[in-house]
Amino acid sequence: MDWQGQKHAEMLMQIFLVASAVAAFAIGYFMRDFRLMMLIYAGGVVLTALVTVPNWPFFNRQPLKWLDPSEVEKHPKPQVSSNTTFSSSKKKSSKNK
Amino acid sequence: MHSAVQRANALVTIAAILLAALCTAASFLDSFNSPSVQAHVEVVKINRFKRQLDGNDEVKMTLNISMNLESIFTWNTKQVFVFLAAEYETEKNSLNQVSLWDHIVQEKERASFRVKVPTKYPLIDQGSNLRGKKIGLVLHWHVMPKSGRMIRDKMPLSYLSLPNSYTTKS
């Protein structure tokens, strides 16, 4: 799942759960049936789990674009200086201060 | 949110919080229900009024009970426990409560009824104070909701004056 996919999954999860809770309460209250409310809410939770938990393809539409290996060759990493004696002497001098 | 387990964890957490919110809301709406219970009880006959061997007074009677508890029931009511208590005062105790009859109502459709029953439990005093005593008959009910706290309420119905002498010799 890419970054956008994760954002969408979280948003979908919250919207779906709150919507199913509100719908369940409204229907349960007007039908005067507590069990119906619980069943609708349970159904909403299962549906939300099916939509947001698995790594569906539509969560992977904006994959991260890594740099080409050729680009890396053009800009080589800065190498550690081979002049170790100089750096060590500098460290020592700084310590002695 | 990068793995399925993390998403499942987040889902279960939010779902549980919302479930608690649903139950709280259902329980909260119950407090707007103000039931008007109608009930009536009369003593048909005193079957037995005697002093037990250990010296305590005992009364058994037949009661005519009618009540309408339909207005108690809301969508959040699991059942209603209703009992008829005899309440009276003695020198020792300012309030004696003895349950005479009880019933569990589980459906609104069965919440309105009329019965003629002998007392389920005899009225036994702690001592022998019942001769000539004026006894209050009080209907108590406990409403057990599906979610939320239990609601208790009561309603005094009528008075019963016991005779001045025992009807049965012990």
TrEMBL record, chain A:
Disordered: annotated span: 70-97
GO cellular component, one term: signal peptidase complex
Transmembrane parts of this sequence: 12-31, 38-59
Entries under InterPro entries matching the protein: Spc1/SPCS1
Chief localisation class: endoplasmic reticulum
The entry's keywords: Endoplasmic reticulum, Membrane, Transmembrane, Transmembrane helix
Compartment(s) where it occurs, according to its Swiss-Prot or TrEMBL record: Endoplasmic reticulum membrane
Keyword Repressor tagged: no
GO annotation terms (biological process): protein targeting to ER; signal peptide processing
Record's bilayer topology term: Multi-pass membrane protein
Pfam families: SPC12
Keyword rRNA processing: no
Summary of the function given for this chain in its UniProt record: Component of the signal peptidase complex (SPC) which catalyzes the cleavage of N-terminal signal sequences from nascent proteins as they are translocated into the lumen of the endoplasmic reticulum. Dispensable for SPC enzymatic activity.
Entry's family note: Belongs to the SPCS1 family.
Name of this chain's protein: Signal peptidase complex subunit 1
Automatic annotation (TrEMBL), chain B:
Pfam families assigned to the protein according to its UniProt record, in alphabetical order: SPC22
Membrane protein topology class: Single-pass type II membrane protein
Entry's localization field: Endoplasmic reticulum membrane
GO cellular component: signal peptidase complex
GO BP, sorted A to Z: protein targeting to ER; signal peptide processing
Record keywords: Endoplasmic reticulum, Membrane, Signal, Signal-anchor, Transmembrane, Transmembrane helix
Stated name of the protein: Signal peptidase complex subunit 3
Biological classification of the source: Eukaryota, Viridiplantae, Streptophyta, Embryophyta, Tracheophyta
